[in-house]
Amino acid sequence: MDQTAQEQSAFVGIDVAKKHLDVHVLPAATSFRVGRDGAGLDDLRDRLQGLSPVLIVLEATGGYETVVLATLAGAGLPVLAVNPRQIRDFARACGQLAKTDQLDAAVIARFAERIRPELRPLPDAATQMLGEIAARRRQIIDMISAESMRLKQAAARKVQRRINAHLAWLQQELTDIDTDLDNAIQESAVWSHHEALLDAVPGVGKTVARTLLAELPELGTLDRRQISALAGLAPFNHDSGTHRGKRSIRGGRTVVRSALFMATWVATRCNPVIKPFYERLIASGKPRMVALVASMRKLLTILNAIIRDQKPWQAA
After folding, report:
1. What is the pLDDT of residue 8?
2. Roughly what angle, to the nearest 10 degrees, separates helices 84-93 and 101-115?
3. What is the rounded distance in angstroms from the CA atom of residue 66 to the CA atom of residue 81?
4. Contact 112, 11 (CB under 8 A)
5. N or C: which terminal CB in the chain sees fewer CB atoms within 10 Å?
6. Where is the Transposase IS116/IS110/IS902 C-terminal domain (predicted)?
7. Helix pair 274-283, 254-270: axis angle to 10 deg
């Protein structure tokens, strides 16, 4: 294969660290390292633009990948961040047990070449900001819960006073973050409209609506099967030969699934569509959790259709 043909079929794997990026290119099997700073990202962008790659894949590594994604996507390059668990499972399947940054980049490149995960549009800067604010809100709530448990266990009054002081600060921080969320939603006519559409569905409050806006920007742009898969609500078969195992859900976006769980739990009591659907499943002998997951999937399908069609909730 000549150099031109190789460039036209290049697959790139990038291992992201705090200070540097290890890059591996297939089928040329070339590797290089750049810094995760302005100069390094510019160098990476220029090198990859020269390759015209089919696909660039990197792991989602706690936020370090964000600036890399933004740089490459802004240059019009086909880049995608994948769940690290997918890469680990792929590496084990290939018998790759050793682990270094360079080896990881090579495994990611091989994953890109053989699996070819589907490219999805990246959220814009405003959506990323909303997602970060929503994530910070969840962190504050987790800290409030943890400190509340410590307060119950503390016996010394001095310790109790310190925990109470921290709880008061966290509650004020939560109030401030909610204000930031309100402002972010109000500044966008689209988000305000979408929030109103979602909030009108019985069982779906503002918190769930904002979680979906921030964590599931694809809502309304995919079909029901695709959106269920993104949320981790698509059932997978467990069959072998004549054995037919129970189908189960896995993967997907945990935050979205948790929000839908709470919304559906409420909807099974007050939503005129979800409530009878859930009750029919229970009456037919389905376990409660199976019925609840099926109801989550149905609620998500309804929400997806509402945003897609831009039509308000109708019980019929």
Report:
1. 55
2. 90
3. 9
4. yes
5. C
6. 196-279
7. 90
CATH of residue 33's domain is 3.30.420.10
**What pLDDT is recorded for position 25?**
95
Structure tokens belonging to residue 142: 């987790």
Domain containing 227 equals 189-316
Number of structural domains in the chain: 3
Of 3-17, 20-34, 250-264, 293-307, the range with the lowest mean pLDDT is 3-17
Q: Which two tokens stand for residue 107?
A: 């495994």
- The last residue of a domain, from among 92, 115, 138: 115
Confidence category of residue 235, pLDDT binned at 50, 70, 90: low
Q: One-letter amino acid identity for 279? A: E
Give the span between the Cα atoms of 287 and 300, in whole angstroms.
20
Return the pLDDT at 246. 55
Query: Can you give the pLDDT at residue 1?
Result: 42
Chosen domain end from 160, 187, 214: 187
Q: Are 196 and 93 members of one domain?
A: no
Q: Are residues 151 and 271 in the same domain?
A: no
Query: How far apart, in whole angstroms, are the C-alpha atoms of residue 314 and residue 200?
Result: 9
Determine how β-strand 243-244 pairs with β-strand 79-82. unpaired
